[in-house]
UniProtKB/TrEMBL annotation, chain A:
PANTHER family: ABC TRANSPORTER PERMEASE PROTEIN YPHD-RELATED-RELATED (PTHR32196), INNER MEMBRANE ABC TRANSPORTER PERMEASE PROTEIN YJFF (PTHR32196:SF63). Coiled coil: none annotated. InterPro entries: ABC_transp_permease (IPR001851). NCBIfam families: PRK11618.1. It is found in: Cell membrane. This is Sugar ABC transporter permease YjfF. Keywords: Cell membrane, Membrane, Transmembrane, Transmembrane helix. Pfam families: BPD_transp_2. The chain crosses the membrane at residues 20-38, 50-73, 79-96, 103-127, 133-154, 175-196, 225-245, 278-298, 305-325. It is a multi-pass membrane protein.
Automatic annotation (TrEMBL), chain B:
Keywords: ATP-binding, Nucleotide-binding, Repeat, Transport. Gene3D superfamilies: P-loop containing nucleotide triphosphate hydrolases (3.40.50.300). It comes from the Bacteria. This is Sugar ABC transporter ATP-binding protein. The keyword Nucleotide-binding applies. One of its GO terms (molecular function) is ATP binding. CDD domains: ABC_Carb_Monos_I (cd03216), ABC_Carb_Monos_II (cd03215). Residues 8-243, 263-506 form the ABC transporter domain. SUPFAM superfamilies: P-loop containing nucleoside triphosphate hydrolases (SSF52540). It holds the Pfam family ABC_tran. It comes from Micromonospora antibiotica.
Amino acid sequence: MTTTPLAARPGRAWWRVPPRHVPVLATAALLLVMYSIGVAQYQAFSNIQVVFNVFIDNGFLLVVAVGMTFVILTGGIDLSVGSVVAMTAMVSASLLGNGLHPALVLVIALLLGPILGFAMGCVIHFFDIQPFIVTLAGMFFARGVCTWISTTSIPITDGFWTSAAQHRIHLGENFVSVGALIAVAVVAVAAAVLAYTRLGRNVYAIGGNQQSALLMGLPVGRTKIAVYTISGLCSAIGGILLSFYTLSGAPLIAVGMELDVIAAVVIGGTLLTGGSGYVFGTLLGVLVLSIIQTLITFDGTLNSWWTKIVIGGLLFVFILLQRLVGIRTK
Amino acid sequence: MSERHPVLTMTAISKIFPGVRALDGVDLRLFPGEVHALMGENGAGKSTLIKVLTGVYGTDSGTITLDGDEVSFSGPMQATAAGVSTVYQEVNLLPNLSVAENIYIGREPRRLGAVNWREMRRRAQELLARIDLHIDVSELLGNYSLAVQQMVAIARAVDIRARVLILDEPTSSLDADEVAQLMRIMRQLRDDGIAIIFVTHFLDQVYAIADRITVLRNGRLVGEYLTSELPQIALVEKMIGKELDALERLDEATSGGDRATLEQGTPLVAADGLGRSGSVAPFSLTIHQGEVVGLAGLLGSGRTEVARLFFGADRADAGRLAVDGAPVAIRNPVAAIDRDIAFCSENRRTEGLVGELSVRENIILAMQAARGWLRPVPRRRQDELVQHWIKALSIRPADPEMPVRNLSGGNQQKVLLARWLITEPRLLILDEPTRGIDIGAKTEIQRLVAQLSDGGMAVLFISAELEEVLRLSHKVAVMRDRQLVTELTNDDSLDAARVMQVIASGSSQEGSVPA
């Protein structure tokens, strides 16, 4: 039998790293390099609290980026996340100001995002409209709701919120916030969902080839709607974390955040065309963005806009890297 | 035979699309443990019948029974669940996932609700071992050849406890070894009692494996036959519904060109050491006016790559190309079109035609591009041209405003040809123009090639079918392992066996023309 030519393994490079892991490894290497630079330059950088602060300061970004990873893995995009974060924070602040019980506020705030996400998912699936335009509409809608609630910032004085904001969970000599722990938990749950559940695998399938997924009998519509709902939920959680962090709801907070989030996901190695990427990569992507910020803060002389310049440059590099890896495997 | 019960019967199926009666009272019955070939020309209704069966389309009338129960599937998903699985020509799997996952996605073995990867890999390995395929199931599917992907698709279908397996032109993109492998798997499945519907254009394969043949023509049932009782020639007649003398007439048509006179003068196009690393080794090839040069070789031997270099679709990194004796650099397709070179791609759906646009718009496209967008082709002129070519190539249905994606494969190919022909190229590159199309359309296209070359057009003709290459070409260049190994003059002494030998061994002792 002439099985040999068929059974022959596809060609492998000498380094034997599967191409699909290259982007994540590149991000990890970059992170390592940047951290080393920080440690070499600034004494205080070696303090482990710097790392914890990254999670404390950017926990909300991480959670939202996890939701975005689901969406991008299906080949979609969700532009509404920043506005939904702001809306969640505004609604919480406003309801708390009206004296509603914090538990009830939490439930309401955590429902709004997923409901909007579900609605956008339905429109995207049933009417077969590009996610870009549907979530753009969602973005305007949620931002409108923010300013409709109030045009000015609403402070939060509720006891539960302030204690959640200020509570320090000590780990040896250092500490993390409640928000940081929630963010890490979200990452862990999301990673498990993507790797070990049918929903997660279907997300990859749709990103690979939606038509094929349909013909293979996979629940494409349900999965797509689920993905936008998950993104909405993550944005809602992100909004709560942001309100913990700032103890207020501001109508113009998190403007343009969706772009930071997309950048983090892409730098984390997820293909914008879908079907390839990991939540772990997104975590690395968020860390890279945060470390850049931290480095520039430590420097002290650089304008904070340098963060954007560096992120812009990195995005270019990573998109090119993905392209090159893609060509290699062809 | 009469004691057995068919696993599947389709009775008096009709399907009407706007303006077309795609199926008209078609019957099909399928017994367990048989390979049943579904034959017919393009547009005969094979694809429609299969789509009706698997629930992609609803029926306008008629019934389908599976194991005696009347069924009506809402889509491929439900059909698969009921045991009717389809493997398409374009493998509909997920290249970004592992082989194991492609087999089991949607039905993953789970433990405590979580996907059990280890169990999945073990089962996949076992399943593939049963069809003698020993590959790493944790590797991404996209890293394997099309043939392996197709076998994985079949493994998936079989594992869903398919009782009816539909193979829709599975062999179109496979080479001979791979086809043999596939046939072996088909026999094995048949012996396990699975009923297989086999759609193909390759008559040899039908006679090698099919037990029974159903022939369709123009949406109607011609008949159901036992393969052993239906000679090939009779089958072809039933498929095209007329005496098959077209091929013979064609032979007369091609004998007109005399090679000696063709060779005179400067070649229209001459490649000298042209090559591209990683794609095709440097080669030299000349094409004269009115000459048909056949490019033979196995799938993946570099045939298409040669064509792409001529057309500037890939950029050469070695050698020179001369048109009319003057050296030129063809860096992109626009430069090629400027020099009257036209290229009909083998992937007519992805690289050639725009499915949403109408037949007319698709035909006008290249001409419009050549004129530049500031000088639109007048509508009257468009209609004239399109009418002419629809008639000349007998494109069916003869409706210029029909979206191209609604046409059958053969007719799409003709539209693509028409597009390039109206630009009046001097060199026409045809990459697998007859693949996946029926014998009638095939003959028409071959005849057209012969006519064009008689009219002075140079043609680079690429095909996997040696008979076709030999019938049309004045000389045959043989590709092997991405090298042009030799050129053979197509005189009376050259036959398929000789070419085959060259393809297999990579050398020819005699009769080779120095390049």
